[in-house]
Every structure is written in C-alpha cells, then in structure tokens.
C-alpha cells in the first residue's frame, strides 16, 4: 500500500515562511510524479505545485508561482513544498498526492491522474 504522509503545517503570521514535507517511499519518488494540492472548506481543491517523476520538471499555480518551491530528496525520501511570503489566502489543508500515469518528465494538476493521497496538513496564516 503506497503511503504519503504530510507534515510541517501549523500557524504562521502573514509574511512568514513554511516548509511542508511529504514523506514517501524511495520507489515512489523514482516512479511517481508528486503534486501538492490545497483545499479551503466550501471550495474546490486546487493544485499548487507538482514535480515530475524524473525531478526535472515542475509546475506551479499562478497564485503561488513566485512564492512556492517544490523539490524532492532521495536522502530524506520526501517531497518538500516551501512557501514564502505567506498570505491569509494560503490558509488551507495541504495534501500531497502521487501519480504514476503522467509521462516521466511531466507533471499535472489533473486530480484524476493521482492515485494516492495523503491525509493532509493544516496551514493557518493569520496575525
């Protein structure tokens, strides 16, 4: 059973930074694209960042293109999402997910492509 475990959420003041981590097995890092998504109660879940299985391609939602950075590490067996200059609108539950269907050097925000999801980690941005 493929597992993804998010961590690193919490409360942060506006303007602050946060790094979320998605712990996965090494084999998952090798063969799956990983995406980070977020959801606010009452709204649809949205993709914010993704990284290809190859690790050579990344993509970001327009809302966070200059504030989000996704990376993966075989040393820690995790995919990190670094968020800087946090704003209250970043408050959400953040999920990571794994996709084995998208071509090796691509990633997507199409949720239908993601077969496995973590339980989520809450991020609250307020003063």
Structure, described:
This protein has 127 residues and is mostly beta strands. It is 5% helix and 43% strand. It is built from 1 helix and 11 strands. It has one helix at 26-31, and strands spanning 5-7, 10-12, 18-23, 33-39, 46-51, 58-60, 68-73, 78-83, 92-99, 116-117, 121-125. The strands form 2 sheets. Strands 2, 4, 5, 6, 9, 10 and 11 form a 7-stranded mixed beta sheet that branches. Strands 1-3-8-7 form a 4-stranded antiparallel beta sheet, with no helix packed on it. A hairpin with a 4-residue loop joins strand 7 (68-73) and strand 8.
Topology, element by element:
Layout: E1 5-7, E2 10-12, E3 18-23, H1 26-31, E4 33-39, E5 46-51, E6 58-60, E7 68-73, E8 78-83, E9 92-99, E10 116-117, E11 121-125
Parallel strand pairs: 2-11
Antiparallel strand pairs: 1-3, 3-8, 4-5, 4-9, 5-6, 7-8, 9-10, 9-11
Task: Describe this protein with a few key phrases.
seven-stranded mixed beta sheet, four-stranded antiparallel beta sheet, 127 residues, mainly beta
Q: Describe the biggest sheet? A: 7 strands, mixed
If you compute it from the alpha carbons, what radius of gyration comes out, rounded to the nearest whole angstrom? 13 Å
Q: What overall form do the CA principal axes indicate?
A: globular
The overall average pLDDT, rounded, is 96
Structural class: mainly beta
Amount of beta strand: 35-45%
How would you sum up this structure in a few lines?
The protein has 127 residues and is mostly beta strands. It contains one helix and eleven strands; from the N terminus they run E-E-E-H-E-E-E-E-E-E-E-E.
